[in-house]
Input
Amino acid sequence: MSQAAFAEKVGLTPDKLSKSLAGVRRFTSLDLALIAEAGGRTVDWLLTGRDPLRPSFAARTTAGAAPRRGRVSDAADRFTAAYEVLELLGRLPKLPPMPSVRSDLKRYVDQGKQLAQDAVGVLTAADGPRTVAGLETDVLITACTQTFGVDVAVTRLPDTVEGLTWQTDTFRLVLIGPTETWTRQRFTLAHELGHILARDAQDLVVESHVAPGRQKDLTEVRANVFAANLLMPAPEVRDQFRQVADQHGRLTDEAFSELVVAFKVSPSALSARLRQLRLIDTKSALHYRGFTTEICHLLAAATDAFQRQLAWAAAERFPVRLVAALYKCYADGETTLRPLAALLGMDVDQLHNLLDPAEPNTPELAGSEVEEGDLIFQP
Output
């Protein structure tokens, strides 16, 4: 292809392209985006010759077959490519400080407990007087993004993979899969957040099965302890346990169900937590482990809350901060829509039509007068 033909392909005049290649005129960020798009490369590759960022793996596969590396990498690539574009444009969102593991605590269990207490303190201070247990999962995700700079996406993942976590000096990313088991999704979210705060995820952490109490990896133990203490803080559990027990005279099935609804966890997770805090005995814990989340919501007359959580957990969600930053770059003329379309898994033309729909062809309205007070509808 001639230089003039390439200039036309990318939307530049031959004169401008010639001057830019000669160093007389600077390429704009939009020029580079268009050239990269036309050449099937990334802007980073044009500027540095550097291959796109690829993760190394820290796989946590405690059950089932290990996921294939290529499919796991593909799941992360959509998001890391977006970070690369924002970094090149100088538009990466700033990462706020976050709690860290206490150096004076040697046991991983103690580290997980303390880290959760610190996280609860920061989250509740930033979000007002509400507790973490009182936050719906989507609100908890928003709070984690605003408070800790963690971008969370609910997106399709390879079979057997429940979550992916990856952090660098420029981003903190958690991917969780859509599911009908929304209490498990919530626990996975908390578990992955524990990895982020403990700085465990410099390599991509691939969770094939989050199984509390069954891991041998001490960082997994810490993340599970963190998740349990984040979602079910001991003071809150004890306080609400007393309230429902006093109300019903004892811990009835209905009272236990009310606790499941309040803390938004599975009956098995709550029964284990109550047993750990010595609020119930082993026999009672085994009894309540046989309950399902849906049955508990039925007993507590909270089926609407169950259906709401179920619908949310099964839907895909993209990190709002990441999407907004890419769209702002497009709106400011710094890049094309391709990075945003790639992140969303959409065709560029389809996305363009959604963002900038064509004006309807309605010649019969031309020249017509509209009297004051008439309703005018437009798309």
Observations:
- Strands lie at 57-60, 151-154, 163-167, 172-176, 204-207.
- The CA atoms of residues 273 and 334 lie 51 Å apart.
